[in-house]
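Journal club prep, notes for RB
We'll compare a predicted complex against what the paper describes. Inputs for the zinc ion case:
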Amino acid sequence: MIVRYAMLSLALALVCVCATGERVVVLDWRCGNSMLHPNLDPEPLDFGSFFVAGGGTLADRKVEFMDAVRVRIKTILDGAGIAVRVEHAPTDAEVETTVRLTQWASPAGKNEIGSAHYDPKNGRHGDEAVIFGEQIRRNERYGEAAGEYTFDDWVAVFANVCSHETLHTLGYGHVPRSECPPDGSDIEIMLDGHTMGEMRSEQRVLDKCR
Ligand SMILES: [Zn+2]
């Protein structure tokens, strides 16, 4: 199972640069309306649909899960030298990137678990990403029984995909897998296609991949 990411070539607003130099990334767990997918009715992430090894679902530890993902995203972006503040919606801050999480399967199919605006041709990038919960849930079950993912696995999967799509909105493109294949624990977060096993692992922006 190879995860697909989408890069949409749309003419959207250029990214804002906040006065403090600190970029604000907001996680909208109720999704809200999306500029990337304006014809679809957003459905909030269904935490109860994600089974956890040993019993229960993410709904049982929803607040803990949301915050663990938030903290992990900040760690990944900090590691890339990008100063960010990651918050949950709603917020009064001037927002650079909104990551909308929905239970939809991706309308594009093809194992796509997230999309964001970035146009490598003209260097334009947007300020919004969408994460597809149902597609992630289906991918988990590809070749595995439901409930094999631990709580920490789920944190890694969601933090990795949210960070990957956020990096698109900051101007990062894909790294071809052939140019920088994963080596042990060194997994480039902007690879064009991760396995779900790699999505459950620690990922980061690797200098050697650019
Ligand atoms: Zn991507």
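Talking point for the session: The pocket of zinc ion is lined by residues 5, 7, 164, 168, 174 (CB under 6 Å).
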